[in-house]
Amino acid sequence: MALRELIEELSSIDKTTLAAVVFVGLVTYRVYYHYSVYVDVESVGVPPGILGPWKAALRHTKEADALIKEGYKKYSKDGKFFKIASIPRYLVFPTDPKHLQEMNSAPDHVLSFGDAGADRISIDYTMDHSFRTETYHLKVIQVYLTQRLSSILPEIISEVTLAWQENTNIGDEWTEVNVWDIMLKVISRTINRMYVGLPLCRNQEYLDNLVEYATTTSKSGIIIDMAPRILKPLVSWYILDKPKKLKKLMKFVGPLFEERKKKMKELGDKWTDRPDDAIQWILDSAPLGADTDTESLVNRILFLNFAAIHTTSISITQALYDLAVHTDLHNPLKDEITSVIAEEGGWTKQGLTKMKKLDSVLKESQRMNNVTSIAMMRKAMVPYTFSDGTFIPKGTWLCAPAAAIHKQEEMQYDGFRWERLRKEEGQAAKHQMVSTSVEYLSFGHGRHACPGRFFAANELKILVASIILNYEFKSPTGERPKNGHFGVSCVPDRGVNMLFRKRKDV
Ligand code: HEM
């Protein structure tokens, strides 16, 4: 059954073709498993027999999260490694924090995050092969977006507030709101206020195309990853239809790059007041020799959207679902937000860092509902041996069992857990939402930890704070909507509505 569900989940296109692709992928997997990479660590969820890994790989599509938790529970006591089968490959999990640190310390030419990430979304087909070697778009986030957080705060606040108001119609009576649908619109619009600015960031056709692009890219990337190498170009041509999707987005963003390049050529260094947006950041970050034709540049901005839109929309939806069933936290949050804004004389970046209860509920939600069950993916580019002698052949994938680490000891939801911990001596920084470690992996950890987390945390705080200040909200059933798991991805239930009404004390 898992195969049919997998195809339904992934596909908005011809199902027979997809079934064929997945089938061929599965056969390839079998060959791959038996004749290529063999990692001598314990397997989880692989039934005995020649078809065992094949069945296990199918189970992975729906039960990866549960299998990883099972493996972690069984093997972490002794700090042992374990592996689970997925359709394209085995995933190997260290459970000892020491081994996760070793993984993190290994250089990229030994254990590569970039290659694992690129394979996972089939970057050569979904985006561009140059992403494997040229990663200057990371600088756009690390340097430009992050360092400008203070100065761009007023724009984030105005866009978040306006986008929420324009997409909802909430009055004094309880009103049903599909949080997921609204948040996709709010988040894509806000991030694009930073990336491409006004007026394009408010063009709904552009935003819808972006969301569709991000969704198709991620789903198609996974399918292409399952296909045998020889069939990848064909599968990609058939299911992705990249030229058509790219053309639609080129229509919106292409002219912005063209215009900017022209002006840079005309004015050169004399152009001192260049716009402060991602169009400019990309042009300024592109190293000498990088491909700067308009299509390549547009690809970079699409990647930045791809990385930001779904991760942030999922996170805000999860946080609101948690708060919709923990309504007792609303007033303490409101008191904290109100007093910080009063103390600071308005919204400031410094003020956002002082909102520790708010930070805590967001972090707790991330802990309970990881966007992915795994983090710190690495592909072994050469054979690698851990300090305990565990041998990892070239081509093996290593991952941190993030969701399993987060939920050990069956810790129940406790919204202000991290705020309390931060009061303990020397713990103030460690328990912030953006502080990563081998124990808190929602944004990954180490050299490749999410560079967008500082921006995302601020955006999430502003959104939750403005909702808490202005509305009451709750789950209509009193129950928290259940998460769905697909492979290692964890997604909120997108079909449910929450109830909102204006606060009477605003
Ligand atoms: C709440 C929202 C977000 C979550 C939960 C999230 C989560 C993650 C995770 C788990 C990773 C992998 C890190 C690792 O495993 O070590 C990652 C990487 C990445 N994220 Fe995010 N992310 C979020 C928002 C963003 C935003 C807003 C941006 C862009 C502005 C962004 C850009 C990236 C990029 C470019 C990488 C790859 C880093 C590299 O190649 O070194 N993310 N993110």
UniProtKB/TrEMBL annotation:
InterPro entries tied to this protein: Cyt_P450, Cyt_P450_CS, Cyt_P450_E_grp-I, Cyt_P450_sf
Q: Does the keyword Iron apply?
A: yes
Query: Pfam families of this UniProt entry?
Result: p450 (PF00067)
Fetch the PROSITE patterns from UniProt: CYTOCHROME_P450
Q: Which GO terms describe its molecular function?
A: heme binding; iron ion binding; monooxygenase activity; oxidoreductase activity, acting on paired donors, with incorporation or reduction of molecular oxygen
User: Which residues make up the binding site for heme?
Assistant: 450
Named cofactor requirement(s): heme
Keywords for this entry? Heme, Iron, Metal-binding, Monooxygenase, Oxidoreductase
Top-level taxon of origin: Eukaryota
Family per record: Belongs to the cytochrome P450 family.
Cite the PANTHER family for this sequence: CYTOCHROME P450 (PTHR46206)
What is the recorded name of this protein? Cytochrome P450
